[in-house]
Amino acid sequence: MEIDPKRILHIVKCMNHGGAETMIMNLYRNIDRTKIQFDFVCMTNKKGEYDDEIKKLGGKIFIVSPPENGRIKNLKEIYKIVKKEKFVAIHSHVSYYSGFICLVAYLAGVKKRITHSHTTSDIRKKNVLRNIYNIFSKLLIKIFSNIKLACGEMAGKYLFGKSNFTILNNGIDLEKYKSITDEQINRLKEELNISKDKFIIGHVGRFVNIKNQEYFIELAKSMQKLCNDFVIVLVGDGSDFDKIKKLIKENNLQDYFILPGLRDDIPVFMKMFNVFVMPSLYEGFPLVVVEALAGDNICFLSDTISKETNVIPERVSYFNLNDNLEDLVNKMLKKYKEKETIDVLKELEQKGYSNKKIAEKLQSIYLK
Questions:
Q1: pTM to 2 decimals?
Q2: Cβ(336)–Cβ(275) below 8 Å
Q3: Residue 341: enclosing H or E segment and its boundaries?
Q4: CA distance 227 to 120
Q5: Which residues of 5-36 are buried (b: 16+ CB within 10 A; e: fewer)?
Q6: What share of the chain is helix, strand, coil (3-state, %, to 5)?
Q7: What is the rounded distance in angstroms from the CA atom of residue 239 to the CA atom of residue 259?
Q8: Using CA atoms, how far apart are residues 160 and 297, in angstroms rounded to an integer?
Q9: What is the rounded distance in angstroms from the CA atom of residue 13 to the CA atom of residue 97?
């Protein structure tokens, strides 16, 4: 007799190519779907970039009105879905709002109510009402969330305080990086019109304020003084894409930038880069750092990013966003020149950043 898989409902804003969403999809692809099936509540009217793949993998997508259009309406819609469908667990990825989600799940009779922390800061401006909301939300999480997960220690303490939580590493498919050939890298360089010996600074991320892609404008100006044969490749899309493109043009830096948009061949890009730079205003444990390390990059990360990203110390350096840029450029060039040979994929495997291992851990949490 065939047993239906146990269904888990993930609560997200939209299934686009963000860090948390990519992590969820990595786990979804690697989990045993004869035992576990993912469904999604998305708080948007827009189609997500992962929606087609979710449906192909057997998942359902439930669209609800966003909280900005009325929290009570949003929670009522989620309650109806949870009450009607049979979910083994609710897995919420919406930061503070997870407290309200877990309350709704409790009222609907769901026994496993999971809150997952993916960041170390709040994008919204702080004021008295926001502070009250955050305090109340944390209280709801404490009372109604009976499983707490975090991408790292800092992210866990940020949302859960001193409460017990489990760290679930941000993992990737390491096998994809093992199979990339020089021919694939050279083909990508030809496509992007990058000459063979050009020094490539890479970045992958959504074009939004917290990712701080504006930083690359000043970085390019400093690079011009010290290493003229370079290019900065910014992969991704988002609300600030046109703004960054305009800034590049206004500063006459078009010859030094390539913006290829969204891509599904990120492992090849990571293997093509010489140095990976992430100047975020804040981050928890961004998945893209693991991807950059798998590509054997020298990684330069802003010191606002969790130091838990220092997975392979020989490959990770931190900088302050107010540091002298010419000093930073010199450090980057020196680090790359002195780069040691390391089996980064073996190290990442041993340190638990393989999707398969992480999916097994999550599966055991769901089925426990």
A1: 0.81
A2: yes
A3: none
A4: 35
A5: ebbbbbbbbbbbbbbbbbbbbbbbebbeeeeb
A6: 45, 20, 35
A7: 14
A8: 33
A9: 11
What 8-state DSSP symbol labels residue 252? Answer: T
Tokens (6 digits) for 69: 């259009």
CB atoms within 10 A of CB 194: 16
Side-chain-side CA neighbours of 224 within 13 Å: the count stands at: 13
Q: Tokens 């910014």 appear where?
A: 234
Choose from 1-10, 13-22, 118-127 the range with maximum mean pLDDT. 13-22
Residue 15 is classified by DSSP as -
Lookup result for tokens 């930073």: 328
Count of all residues that appear for the chain in the document: 368
Residue 70: pLDDT band with limits 50, 70, 90: very high
Q: Look up residue 364 and give its two tokens.
A: 């055991």
How high is the mean pLDDT of the chain?
93
Judge whether 342 and 315 are in contact, CB under 8 Å: yes
Alpha-carbon distance 293 to 214, whole Å? 23
Quickly list H helices, 153-240: 153-160, 174-178, 182-192, 215-226
Beta bridge partners of 301: 278, 318
| CA 297 to mean position of chain CA atoms | 18
Task: Write down the domain spans for the chain.
Answer: 6-171+352-367, 174-350
CATH numeric code, 6-171+352-367: 3.40.50.2000
Pairwise pLDDT comparison (265 vs 122), residue with the higher score:
265
Return the closest-CA partner of residue 55 out of 32, 33, 38.
38
Q: 174-350 falls under which CATH superfamily?
A: Glycogen Phosphorylase B; (3.40.50.2000)
- Type of residue at 336: Y
How large is the angle between the packed helices 128-144 and 98-107, nearest 10 degrees?
Answer: 40
CA distance 275 to 215: 15
